[in-house]
Amino acid sequence: MVSEYTPDYKIINKDSGADITAKLREFIVKITIKESSASANDTLSISIDAAGIDVFPISGTKIECHLGYKETGLINFGVYKVDTKSVSGPPEIITVICGASDFNALYKSQKSRHWDDKTLGDILRTVAASNGLELVIDDDLAAIQIKYMVQKQESDMNFVARLATEYAANGTIKAGHIYFKKGNGVYKTVNRSKLGLINYHLQWIDKPKYDYVVATWQDINSSTSNEEIYDGEGFSLEYSGSVARVQEISQSQYEARKNAKAFWHKLEKLKLSGSMMMKGDPTIVSGLGFKLSEFGDTFDGRVVEVKNTTHTWQRNGYTTNAVLSTGD
User: Fold this and answer.
1) In this structure, are residues 211 and 219 in contact, taking their beta carbons and an 8 Å threshold?
2) Is the pLDDT of residue 4 over 60?
3) Which of 29, 148, 303, 321 is the most exposed place for a label (fewest CB within 10 A)?
4) Inter-CA distances, 303 with 42, 273, 298, Å
5) pLDDT at 9
6) How far is 288 from 10, CA to CA, in rounded Å?
7) Pairing of strands 134-137, 110-119
C-alpha cells in the first residue's frame, strides 16, 4: 500500500442497520481482526476510550466491520457478535471482544443426508443454501462428478472441511459465503521490494519423497482387500519404490482413489512456513497464496498459503501480519 493512503474503517450495527462509525470514531483507539481458515475462530477486538462505552453496542449485538483505505475503498471482514468487555489503564481503555457470528448452528447441528450422482458444486450449494449462505467455488472443482456422498451425524462445518481435504481444496466460511478454492489456486505475486514489508521470517524443510501412494479398500459385500496405487499421474497395478500408505480403509474403489490423490497432494508439498508483517492490506486473508519473489533461490517461485492474518488499525497506521505455510 502507498504510504500516503489514509487507513480507515466502518462499523455497522447489523441489528439496527445503522452505520455507527461517526458515533464511535472519537473513542476508538485500536481495531484488531484475527481471521483464519477456521472461520469460527475469527475475532474482532475494538479498544475504545472509556468515555465512549455508553455509545458502544451492548453484548449480544451483531456488528459488521470493514477495513481499508479512504482512497482505495474498504473491505468487509464479516459479522461479529459483541461478547465480552475488559478494562485496563491508565489511561482507562475498554477492550470489546467480538466473536464470529452465526457459526453455532454450523458447528453444533449434526445432519445426516446423502447425494447420488451429483457434482461437488451441487452438494456444496445444498449446504450453503441450508445455512443461508452463498457458494463461491472454482469451476473445475464444481464440475467434479461424485457417484455417492454421505454426511452422517456430522456438522456442516466439519463436512465442508472434510470435502476440502478430500479434494485438496481450501474451504472457508466467511461473510455470508462458502469459499471453495483449489489449494494455492488463487495467489498474488509477492515481491520483497514492493510489498511494504516491515519484517519477515521464512523457513523450509524437505519432506520425505515417495514414488507411490497406496490406499486400501474393502467392499462391504466381500472380505477381500484391494489396493489402489497412485504415482502422481495415474493408477498402476503394481509398484517398485518407496511407498506411503493411507491409513484409513476405504469402502469403495472410488473412495480409495480419491483418498490416494489427496494424500499424494499433501506429501508432494514442500514444508515451507513463516510470517510477514507489512503495511496494512485488507486483501490479504486466509486461503490466499503468495508466490514469492526476491526472497532468494530457495524461496523464489514457490507458492505459500496464508493460514491466518491479524489486521490492526491504530490512530498512527494500519498493519497486516500473515502466518504462512504449505504443509499441514
Assistant:
1) no
2) yes
3) 148
4) 24, 11, 12
5) 97
6) 24
7) unpaired
* Residue 118, pLDDT score: 94
Query: How far apart are the C-alpha atoms of 39 and 203, rounded to whole Å?
Result: 26
What distance in Å separates the CA atoms of residue 146 and residue 215, rounded to the nearest whole number? 19
User: Three-class SS of residue 75?
Assistant: strand
The H-or-E segment that residue 68 falls in is strand 62-69
Question: How much is the pLDDT for 166?
Answer: 81
- Residues 6+ positions from 149 with CB-CB distance below 8 Å: 114, 115, 118, 123
Q: Which domains does the chain have, with CATH numbers?
A: 7-105 (2.40.10), 109-182 (3.55.50.30), 189-205+271-326 (2.40.30.150), 212-268 (no CATH)
Which amino acid is located at 209 in the chain?
K
Over residues 268-286, the pLDDT tens digits come to 665 788 999 999 999 888 8
The β-bridge partners of 227 are 216
b vs e for 110-149, b when ≥16 Cβ sit within 10 Å of the residue's Cβ?
eeeeebeebbbbebbbbbbeebebebebbeebbeeebeeb
> CA-CA distance, 136 to 169, in Å (whole number)?
13
Question: What does the pLDDT average to over 310-318?
Answer: 95
pLDDT at position 227 is 92
Mean pLDDT of the chain: 86
Cα–Cα dist 241/233, whole Å: 15
Cα angle value 148/136/303 (rounded, 5°) = 95
Instruction: Output 82-90 pairs: Cβ under 8 A, ≥24 positions apart.
Output: 82/56, 82/57, 82/58, 83/59, 84/59, 85/53, 85/59, 87/50, 89/50
How far does Cα 225 stand from its chain's mean position? 37
